[in-house]
Amino acid sequence: MASERRVERMQKEILREVSRILREDLNDPRMGMLSLTRVKLSPDLKVAQVFVSALGGETEWRRSSSALRHALGFIQQALGRHLATRYIPELHFAYDPSIEKSVR
Fold first, then answer.
1. Measured CA distances, 59 to 63, 64, 68, 75 (Å)
2. How confident is the model over 55-94, as pLDDT tens digits?
């Protein structure tokens, strides 16, 4: 098990790298305007849940999620090139409605 501080550091690094990969390396017309809000990493650093908010709400998220699922292998491989860890966390993308709620 990793320390809390290491988990927090890894969460920030994963958030930064995945957002960079989506912004610079992924070119999919199905991908809408997405914002990565946070990452929740398991204590053993093997599973990362990435919370995503979509401009356009849940309908835009549904369209973009299919593109994310299709590119998941590419995203994890690119993440592995930038993280200096023994294991590359398995990524799971989840919709985060918090931004929509705060606007309302």
1. 7, 9, 14, 23
2. 877 788 888 888 899 999 999 999 999 888 888 999 999 9
